[in-house]
Amino acid sequence: MSRECTALARTVRAAVLLAILMAALALGPRGAQAQTGGGSAEPDRAALIALYHATDGPNWIDSTNWLSDAPLGEWYGVTTDQDGRVTDLTLPTNGLAGRLPIALGTLTELTVLGLERNRLSGEIPRELGSLGHLDRLDLWDNQLTGEIPRELGSLSELTLLSLGENRLTGAIPRELGKLSKLVVLSVNYGQLTGEIPRELGNLSELRQLNLGSNQLTGEIPGELGNLSELTSLGLGYNNLTGAIPHELGNLRDLEWLDLRANRLTGEIPPDLGQLANLKGLLLGGNELTGCIPRDLRTARDDDLDSLGLGRCETAPEPPDPGTAGLLPQPPESARAFLHPALLALLLAACAGARRAVRATRPPP
Asked: Are 57 and 95 in contact (CB under 8 A)?
């Protein structure tokens, strides 16, 4: 081959390599991976396959395209981003049965994991704490056991954590108090023990807190009064003791307060009378004493009447020093039934009698 041909061949190869390099740079790392077929989505595919095999995939209600060569975004219940990474995995009421595989912790772009109302068993994998983009974790109504992994406290983007209707045991991890974006925390109908962590009072965005129907003990933390966005607080059917903290009166947006079936003692704090938006208040099944605060009203006052506690009466106004013990005013109960004209005459007569008494009273 002549020198001219050799030089031309080298020039062509260099041009081709330069074109490939420029195309790769234009696509970026993820685009290049997608084009070459290697793809960062391969670990996601492996994680989904592991879930299928671990949870009796052949007997799922719907498993369209699972284990096929179709793009992951076409698998039933799976949503992917433009790079083919799994962002949403929702398979509610789909017949999943078995243990959650630890491979789910490799779905690092996942924002929603919704596996509620299935027959999942075993423990919640602590590897889920690696899902840094997770916004919603819903495992409600399964047969999960063991403790709530403290690693879930690392899910800084989480807005919903629903683990109720399972068989979870142990204490509520204090680390959950780090979930600063959490809006809903529901871990009811389980077998949780220990005290309610005071750290939950740090969840400034929380609107629903439901820890009812467990075996929680200790006092209700006053720090829960810091949850200014809270609309629903459910702590009923536990073994909570002590007094109802007056700090709950700070929850001005609260609509539902369920403290029934505990061992609470003392009086109902008058501060609860400031809860103008309260629609439901359940306090029965405790050992409360005293009376119901006069300003406390709900849409269902029969809930309060069932306590067997009377309404607190207002303190009587001090009598007129000049007529104390002589001529009392008509009682409030009488005023309610008197015609305004008759009431005016009666009050005028009382006033005239008082003047007469003052006129005939000997000087001191």
From this structure: no
For the cut 90, the answer to whether the pLDDT of residue 333 exceeds it is: no
Q: Print burial letters for 56-95: b (CB count within 10 Å at least 16), e (below 16).
A: ebeebeebeebeeeeebbebebbebeebbbbbbbbbeebb
One of 3.80.10.10, 3.20.20.10, 2.60.40.10, 3.10.20.70 is the CATH number of 42-305, namely: 3.80.10.10
Model-level pTM? Answer: 0.76
Distance (Å) of CA 351 to CA 99, 138, 309, 342, 356? 83, 70, 38, 14, 9
Percent of the chain scoring above 70 in pLDDT? 71
Residue 105 pLDDT > 70, yes or no? Answer: yes
If one counts every other C-beta atom within 10 angstroms of the C-beta of residue 289, the result is 10
Distance CA 203, CA 224 (A): 9
DSSP secondary structure letters along 73-132: GGSTTEEE-TTS-EEEEE-TTS--EEEPPGGGGG-TT--EEE--SSEEEEPPPGGGGG-T
Determine how β-strand 97-99 pairs with β-strand 78-80: unpaired
Give the separation between CA 101 and CA 357, rounded to whole angstroms: 91
Q: Give per-residue pLDDT as tens, 131-161.
A: 999 999 999 999 999 999 999 999 999 999 9
Mean pLDDT of the chain: 83
Q: How do 78-80 and 86-90 pair as beta strands?
A: antiparallel
Rounded Cα gap, residues 96 and 63, in angstroms: 10
Token couple for 120: 């999942």
Mean pLDDT of the region 349-357: 43
Q: Domain ranges in the chain?
A: 42-305, 322-358
Whether the CB-CB separation of 303 and 280 falls below 8 Å is answered with: yes
Would the pLDDT of 355 be above 70? no
